[in-house]
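Notebook entry, cofactor series.
This is the third protein in the set we're modelling with a bound small molecule. For this one the ligand is fe (ii) ion. I'm keeping the input format identical across the series so the outputs can be compared line by line later. Sequence and SMILES below, as received.
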Amino acid sequence: MKLVAVDYLAPNAEQAFVESLHQTGFGVLKNHPIQQSLVDNIYRRWQAFFDSEEKQDFLFSKETQDGYFPPSVSETAKGFTVKDIKEYFHYYPWGRCPEALRPQLAEYYQQATDFAATLLSWVEKHSPAQVADKYSQPLSHMIKDSQQTLLRVLHYPPLSGDEEPSAIRAAAHEDINLLTVLPAANEPGLQVKGKSGEWIDVPCDFGNLIVNIGDMLQEASGGYFPSTTHRVINPQGTDQKKSRISLPLFLHPRPDVVLSDRHTADSYLKERLRELGVI
Ligand SMILES: O=C(O)CCC(=O)C(=O)O
Ligand SMILES: [Fe+2]
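Returned structure with ligand:
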């Protein structure tokens, strides 16, 4: 299995991108319309936030799940017992955020959500008819006016050497949501699991946009679009001293959206969050 960046401006971009999502659960886009200077700026300013003690003033709320999640409470992936080596901030337009950082994050959230709606319309248009028949409404409508779409600012701190031996930055997992949109991080490390169990580096050239299928779209498409396992590995050598920042946007349907015979978005999300131990 190989992941190749699709040129957003190429005439066959839509088909090539959706085919990559079908084959691998991942699609990588270059020359896409999301403003790279905005992403750069967010990486820089949030690095300063994570380096400061100000973050303690924005501790997350267990009820609403917005705010700062310190390393001591960060996730343990399904099936693992050791916590990931990361801290993160959950941004929702209605949630807590340092005011000085809000305008940029709000702007990115809007741009990336709008672009995701376009990508979902590509997915729908290029789904085989028997797959598209399963969608309870157009995919791009499922996320319209959703209050659940989550922008996560992730900071993987430099390694100190006294991490638990088996801990990694993000243990192998699948995303819960419909679709994830992720600008290439400022350092490598993201890998996706291939069909024969091999780990493949996601092309992380600065400026690439990485898109992956989440469990909810796998559910809604009857498995045609696979929610592929991925992870973030630890850096080696002198790179151990470097932080890594990434910015996944997890597109969530409104809670009442029907995904399948078994699940609405809400019932699905609750089941998965309980498994993760965060609710
Ligand atoms: O940091 C990354 O590159 C990916 C993060 C990720 O997979 C996640 O938070 O679900
Ligand atoms: Fe993920």
